[in-house]
Amino acid sequence: MDILVLNSGSSSLKYLLYNWDRKRSTAKGIVERIGLEGSAIIHEVIGRETITIKQNCPTHKEALNLIVSALTDSKHGVIKDFNQIKAVGHRVVHGGEKFNKSVIIDSEALKTFKELSNLAPLHNPPNIMGIEAAMKLLPNIPHVAIMDTAWHQTIPDHAYIYALPYEWYTDYSIRRYGFHGTSLLYVAKRAAVLLGKDPFQTNLVLAHIGNGVSFNAVKMGLSYDTSMGFTPLEGAVMGTRAGDHDAAIDLYMMEKLNISPSDMSNILNKKSGILGITGKYYDRRDVLKAAEQGDKRAKLAIEIEGYRGKKYIGAYAAALGKLDAVVFTAGVGEMNPVIREKMLSDLEMFGIKLDGKKNQISKTRNAETLISADDSDVKIFVIPTDEELVMVEDTVALMEGRYDIHTRFKYSFQDPGYVNILREENFKKDIENNPELVEIRAKAPR
Questions:
Q1: What are the extents of the domains in the chain?
Q2: How large is the angle between the packed helices 124-137 and 60-72, nearest 10 degrees?
């Protein structure tokens, strides 16, 4: 039984084809830089060379067509046609209060996702586009929505209620929801495995750093607080999103510029953050390159992002009291030692001590690494996320009628002996270029 999962980000579309009978991925990949120049698909198949195909993808619809082409290609594909796929799992960023766990998509669910689009303007629209395109392509199989907000349903009311008129919560559902939940669930469970602890006896600070950024305090295995709020706009500095700032600025500038709420929303979500500071870039690879070449605003963006991230790590360490580990994940968190170092410097008072050399070595999306100093009281892990595997397992469990919330459901990757075969193959290639990765690879206690 082949399961396809689609993970639509604001400028990317990840996919995974998983054979459930053999319990292994058969192909995975990502279409990057959607809506930008230089968009391309990176397509990986076990036992074959990774291929990159450059193709203009103005929207997620073209990106999905490119994925279909790659999976069914006579040379690079793994299936003859899409009828072999028996279910599709879709990432949905905002489920509001109506959805607190993964669900099979019907017309009512799709309607609700559309109604919530203004709460996640960079994500729900491409999520919906991917769902509708896939449902048109494969109309006779189950399509499942895996909610980014579900992981955060355990946040206590003193952490999710804003200091605003209480009626705004009761009448309009204004509250902190939190996002990136599928990724955070995966790395929280994996961190517990690497620590050799019961997941519900662990305290963690998780840093999901990509174009979007979430910091998450995990108390006794449950989401306790998170940086994103009512929408994915609140929180840390992000690629194009402003994150935390004085709301009066928005009102002041709306008057000064004579712009509408819709115009301001577009500025805060699409023209702020790293892009707003640099004026040119939001991809951190571009920012780092520009900073190395002397671009002062690029250097400033790095300092601002690092400083703001450090504040979240410190605040959540204080909120948790006792901390077992700090975990970095997602594209920037997994591959950018500069940002990690900026966020972790001078946190020894919390027992957090980075090993600079290990941090510089850790650049892989195919293995979990330990980058804390030997005498650090708190472990620092870099754990490549695997949202797609969570989505596969939720999708199959819903099809088979055994799905439940994570406190009553055990995932395959919680087994200390769990191995991702595709990543193992790719890691062999990584260590050819970076042999020292072997020395910092994190291993579960036996």
A1: 2-147, 198-386+420-440
A2: 40
Confidence band for 202, pLDDT divided at 50, 70 and 90: very high
pLDDT at position 435 is 95
One fold for 2-147 and 198-386+420-440: yes
The CATH code of domain 198-386+420-440 reads 3.30.420.40
Q: What is the dihedral of CA 214, 216, 221, 224, to 10 degrees?
A: -130
Among the four given CATH numbers 1.10.8.80, 3.40.50.300, 3.30.420.40, 3.20.20.70, the one describing domain 2-147:
3.30.420.40
H or E stretch covering 202? none
CB neighbours of 12 closer than 8 A, spacing ≥ 6?
30, 31, 32, 33, 34, 211
Within 13 Å and on the Cβ side, how many CA atoms surround 226?
A: 33
3-state secondary structure of 276: helix
CB 86 within 8 A of CB 398: no
> Is the pLDDT confidence value at 280 over 90?
yes
Coil, strand or helix at 372: strand
With a cut of 80, say whether residue 33 has pLDDT above it: yes
Taking the alpha carbons at both ends of the chain, their separation in whole angstroms is 32
Q: What is the SS3 assignment for 425?
A: helix
Question: Which residues have CB under 8 Å from 197's CB, separation 6+?
Answer: 324
User: Among 2, 148, 295, 324, which one carries the catalytic annotation?
Assistant: 148
DSSP H stretches of helix in 321-436: 330-335, 337-344, 356-361, 387-399, 421-433
Which tens digit of pLDDT belongs to each residue from 365-423?
Answer: 999 999 999 999 999 999 999 988 999 999 999 999 998 889 999 999 999 999 988 78
C-alpha–C-alpha distance, residues 239 and 220, integer Å: 31
**Is 286 marked active-site?**
no
